Amino acid sequence: MAAPGVSAASVAGAGALRSGMAAGRAAAACAAAAPLALRIVAECPVSKARACELTLPHCAVSTPVFMPVGTQGTLKGITSSQLEALGCQICLGNTYHLGMRPGPELIKKANGLHGFMDWKRNLLTDSGGFQMVSLVELSEVTEEGVRFRSPYDGKEILLTPEESIGIQNSLGSDIMMQLDDVVSSTVTGPRVEEAMHRSIRWLDRCIKANGNPDRQNLFAIIQGGLDPELRKTCLEEMTKRAVPGFAIGGLSGGEEKEHFWKMVTLSTDHLPREKPRYLMGVGYATDLVVCVALGCDMFDCVFPTRTARFGSALVPWGSLQLKHKQFAKDFQPIDSDCECATCRRYSRAFLHALFKSDTAAMHHITVHNIAYQMSLMRLVRQSIVEQSFPAFVRRFMERMYSSQEKYPSWAVEALASVGITLE
After folding, report:
1. Marked catalytic residue, from 297, 300, 330, 335
2. Over the chain, what is the mean pLDDT?
């Protein structure tokens, strides 16, 4: 925070000067070939949607891609081998929680997070910054870093940009995220500008701290809240750094969707074409389809696994609440067009009954929900490659909402902004 009598703007201004000088050093530090390559396979001639191949150390990733979230080295309700069988090419781990327990030293001894969780494909680790919002009552932010009180044992820890990168180096993830100063997307005022400038300064510290630039890719995170000018400032500064990729952060936190999509499209308008664009915390089907149209390549969210634990199965027309009585005698699969193990073997009636007595029901629905997300993104990508993405979007919306009167107005507006009309 700014010292007494010193404005946040003054600190930001001085920081911007130092940040500009650091940018050259940071760019030089990243100038060596990063262990990442992006090849644009196809682009939609109408919207900003694109299909790419992202080459990472463990395997190639076809984008657009949804990345399931395994907070503590595992996805709740699904094994690594099942995740691989579903076609997942990259998933997430959480630096804060893995750093707390079992700890980076133990994971490093297991040949990194890949070895620890027996995962042979790619991993992306977040920086721990999001916990500034999710554990706000337990955290305090200063220029040095974020001071947390552990939710496990109450112990106080300081997470600095250097510490975050050090943990991620120990985890051995293919993509690492910078530590950013995260504020809720509903916050306004000087705190948003302070967080944006600090995130730029912390990016330079993260770049300098990366001990494995030849093996691990460090992504920058664009901040600026819902203020277009702050977003543009952050974009202008961060794109000066020769990092392998960029994330759009600070959204999907409860803001109005009409503000959300405008910040997304503003960001993709200013991000470099030749680098991957990762929209953080987005997982609802409609959001995924719309934000692909707005130019995003990568997405993550706990939604499909979390909602499965409450008995909600994702389908092309919305969701099925399998705990409800109406499914007690329904012997159809969740989705007759789905080829996942759950839909091949079990009926809605079985899953409904199982929920009353066995946690295995959560496992079966989790398998289905991840399969749904993977399938949706494959269909999106296929339509881009076949130059039929606008038609795909129209079919998707028709099936999801059944009538145009039910279409979310923000989605209609967002799609129209990139040339896709739904009439």
Report:
1. 300
2. 90
